[in-house]
Amino acid sequence: MTKSNKLFTILIPIISVLLGLIAGAIIMLISGYNPILGYTALWNGAFGDAFTMGETVRRITPLLLTGLAVAFAFRTGLFNIGAEGQVIVGWLAAVWVGLAIDAPMIIHLPLAILASLAAGALWGFIPGLLKAKLGVHEVIVTIMMNYIALYSVNEIIRNVLTEQETTTDAISPSASLASEWLQGLTYFSRMHYGILIALFAAVTMWFIIQRTTIGYELKAVGFNQHASKYAGMNVSKNIILSMVISGAFAGLAGAMEGLGTYGTISIMSGFTNLGFDGIAVALLGANNAFGVILAAILFGVLKEGAGQMPTGAGVPTELVDIIIALIIFFVASSYIIRWILLRFKKEGK
Amino acid sequence: MEYVIEMLNIRKEFPGIVANDDITVQLKKGEIHALLGENGAGKSTLMNVLFGLYQPEKGEIRVKGKKVSITNPNIANDLGIGMVHQHFMLVEPFTVTQNIILGNEPTKKGKIDIKKAEKEVQEISDKYGLKVDASAKISDISVGMQQRVEILKTLYRGADVLIFDEPTAVLTPQEIHELIEIMQSLIAEGKSIILITHKLKEIMQVCDRCTVIRKGKGIGTVDVADTSVSKLASLMVGRDVVFKTEKKPAEPKETVFKIENLVVKDSRKVSMVKGLDLEIRAGEIVGIAGVDGNGQSELVEAITGLRKSESGSITLKNKNIKNLSPRKVTESGIGHIPQDRHKYGLVLDYPVGANIVLQTYYKKPYSKASILDYKEIYKKAKEIIEEYDVRTPSEFTKARALSGGNQQKAIIGRELDRSPELLIAAQPTRGLDVGAIEFIHKRLIEERDKGRAVLLVSFELDEILDVSDRIAVMFDGKIVSTMKPEETNEHELGLLMAGSKASGAGESHDKE
Ligand SMILES: Nc1ncnc2c1ncn2[C@@H]1O[C@H](COP(=O)(O)OP(=O)(O)OP(=O)(O)O)[C@@H](O)[C@H]1O
Ligand SMILES: [Mg+2]
């Protein structure tokens, strides 16, 4: 069981991705575009030269973190749709600290990052608390928290951080993740040190979930609350803690944008989608830290490469969104693929 | 020879284990056929094969002489095979009728015709004397009634062959009695039954023939009329089994555990424990006898911190443990074998090893500075698996994949291994085979001899009479009388449990 199960967890996402790409090719054909040209453009858009590669990495960075956020909650039986809002408040908190304080880098940067963690954690804490104490479903509360984040952050940008402007000033360099060295390597892409933080976060998630008593408790509560209570665990505390940690990961994704890519925060007309994409990344990565890294890479590549498709092959970006959506569709309906695989296995005997 | 079902040379493998190895079972029309075997022998697996939940690697199934391929439960239904699983599959907020027609709803102009269905269900219920109220909600009826709903479900779908997987394990003696009557009326109507049970007396009482499985292999089929309880037991285990547990008289010492005037309410805010007093001394086993629903579960939950007590006191070694958190209660020296192993006893999706440290994972040596030490955890797990004969492919196997009895053995091993001051054992041998029961009883008595206190809660009067040093009869939230096991008998206990005055019983014995 365990062996073939492991194989399946690896096979299913790969097959889903392939099916998504094939379906995308068919759609391109039907709509009168050349799929080979289209996919070549996609490839060049992601890996064409050092600049695009740098841009691809910087796009992967926040997706990796939101993927971790959603995956962490999933592993403990919770569905955190609120990564989106947690990203936004994390972004704001990081930029705010980046603007408001004067300190040497060694203090300033960690402080700004911590602020994003704390803000995301707070945004996770509220739905966690409501779930633990009043039994309100986290999906509903996190969706509402997304809107609260979006509109209040816009208000703060407009009225507190600026005077009716749409974008804040740039943060002070002492709080920035940007790296001249990395930029130099990649023809001045916006790649920054954040990728290291994100990879470190993935290791942290793996470590917490697999190696610590905290992870042991969190997963137990996710699987069976009655048995966890019997075992002496504090069920409420663990539900809240799970949302707090998940929120902190997402908040950190906000810092990647605020301290790394942009160095500012602007009024948003809609959601960043980083949090929502995180759900797909987590799903594709089978909620496992290593899988999330791979899934984030795939997503980053697709999204970055998509930018090249209209100019390179005349394929509209919408089509790339469709391909991504198809991949998610195939992953979500993975039980169909599982079923087909089982069939093959049976017949092969 | 007229066989309704034939399973010939069936083989079913799971990774790392052959659950069924060349087993043959032939069911005659109109018989009750027992399936007997130790925990993990492969009984449930074999029946799941017949019901279409698993596909066999080898072997042949015939229904009324015709070879069939049962690839899913719908096919089993169509062939007239119904199964009552050990863990029921009912939708709690639905009514009895809604559950029964689920997946197979009669419609009138596209609308579900619930009235008609209800009438049909009620008719079947009356025909077989099931006494089920077709319009009652599942969450409002007892476990015994829920089981009958499962029976009704199979009958409603036209089953001629009914498979019962350990139906009596979750029932009280009275309910068992009624179930047996139901089975007999099913036979009278021309149905055939396969019955899995660990209770040899039940086999002797109701079955015609019995097929024995040992470690996945078919040992043979015997006529019940030609056999005896002890013959069946040795066939099944492969050695002789002692039924009456040997024990020296208890040497109780000081009182370690004391409950005074305890009041506990259930989740509907109704008092279930009503001013209960109980004392247990070091080195004795106190058995609580009582009909289900007289406050036993609430009492156990209150002691272990799973439920708040309203008033009264609970002390262990003169220290208050009332309304402490479950963790504090455990740390103060209480072990608990819970009545419902799936709900409380195990995290089914954790490996067996992780379940072994369910209450101790945060302590040395299983973790240091919050970091788990898997080597130590799995070492301990291996120890317990060996000592308590938990049959599992390995300590890394998910608890879910273990047979019911082996899950129970893992829990018992975990709780006994801590050797707590007070061990609370609620229905500890539910679903265990006779060999395992013998072993568990021995271990409970060993704990006692080490000077520990043991509180045994059981619906099995045999178990209470065999193992306890003192019996406390619980009725309507109180201990109504206490006595020594050698001074009473099943009949008298039965009367006391039903609430008849304690006057004669306890006191007259005191005078003897
Ligand atoms: N889904 C599964 N995956 C892996 N192993 C399994 C699975 N189901 C059962 N087994 C293994 O097959 C063997 C037989 O299990 P089964 O449940 O049939 O036993 P049983 O005779 O019903 O025992 P019990 O009396 O304890 O219920 C056991 O060793 C069990 O661990
Ligand atoms: Mg079984």
From TrEMBL, chain A:
CDD domains from the UniProt entry: TM_PBP1_transp_TpRbsC_like
Protein location: Cell membrane
Molecular function per GO: transmembrane transporter activity
A Pfam family per the record: BPD_transp_2
Stored InterPro entries: ABC_transp_permease (IPR001851)
Subcellular location, principal: membrane
Any coiled-coil regions, as ranges: none
Protein name: Branched-chain amino acid ABC transporter permease
Organism encoding this protein: Virgibacillus indicus
UniProtKB/TrEMBL annotation, chain B:
Membrane topology: Peripheral membrane protein
Domain of life: Bacteria
All copies of domain ABC transporter, residue ranges: 5-240, 257-501
InterPro entries: AAA+_ATPase, ABC_carbohydrate_import_ATPase, ABC_transporter-like_ATP-bd, ABC_transporter-like_CS, P-loop_NTPase
GO-annotated cellular components: plasma membrane
Keywords: ATP-binding, Cell membrane, Membrane, Nucleotide-binding, Repeat, Translocase, Transport
GO MF annotations in UniProt: ATP binding; ATP hydrolysis activity
Gene3D superfamilies: P-loop containing nucleotide triphosphate hydrolases
Record has Cytoplasm as a keyword: no
Subcellular location(s) of the protein: Cell membrane
UniProt similarity note: Belongs to the ABC transporter superfamily.
PANTHER family (UniProt xref): CARBOHYDRATE TRANSPORT ATP-BINDING PROTEIN MG119-RELATED, GUANOSINE IMPORT ATP-BINDING PROTEIN NUPO
Protein name: Heme ABC transporter ATP-binding protein
Organism this protein belongs to: Virgibacillus indicus
Taxonomy of the source species: Bacteria, Bacillati, Bacillota, Bacilli, Bacillales
